[in-house]
Fold:
Amino acid sequence: MEDRAKISSVIRQHLEAEEFFAGFSLRGQVDAGEFQEQEDDMAAAQRAGELEKLAEEIGQCRKCGLGSSRTNAVPGEGNAGARIMFVGEAPGGDEDAVGRPFVGRAGQLLDKIIAACGLKRGDVYIGNILKCRPPENRDPRADEIVACLPYIQKQIELIQPEIIVALGAHAARTLLDTTKSIGQLRGHFHEYFAGLGQVPVKLMATYHPAFLLRSYSPENRRRVWEDMQKVLTELGLPIPERQN
Ligand code: URA
Structure:
């Protein structure tokens, strides 16, 4: 009889304890998906801060002669957590005047290309191989590329884009360390290697918008659009229908 009373008392205690502890929930408790989102937001904020610091460093850079001929350095801009990173050649006159990438005529065409992809400028990151304008918009020199390369490498490392779109021969050749022509490079994916132990990033090479403006043929437009469609497909993004 005594034993039975003991057993029911133990069972009651057990049930009470179960009920008591079941009522708790952590303040601000989040599910796994939300937790991941919060982590991603924190990582993006940290990356944005580091990109900001890098931009300040670029603003002080005098590693090559362009540091003294520029009006403004053009570090790059956009979403620190971008899935797509566009990399051009070097700032032109319009960019040098305001310190922002792709704001002139070539930039307006790039904006249209981004919009045709169903994206906004703020969804992507836009940078250049050279952060300062070469006088008279001449081609970048090898010594300038060597001096400036660590900046775009660091930006890629911080942003960790899923795809880099290299705009034109200078960007594609520099990032892929090749001497092939843009005609040979465009239209298929390559891999950008940041170095030993780093995950390679997919790279699509395509024509530079400034080239497209000079040679605005239906054929060239179609090629750039085909290159961008491959990028969208690779990212699992929908391909917008043409409006006209
Ligand atoms: N061309 C480039 O390559 N970059 C710019 O920022 C503008 C024009």
User: Anything to note?
Assistant: The radius of gyration is 26 Å. The pocket of uracil is lined by residues 88-92, 95, 101-102, 106-107, 128, 210 (CB under 6 Å). Residues 20-28 have pLDDT under 50 and may be disordered. The domain at 63-235 is CATH 3.40.470.10 (Uracil-DNA Glycosylase, subunit E).
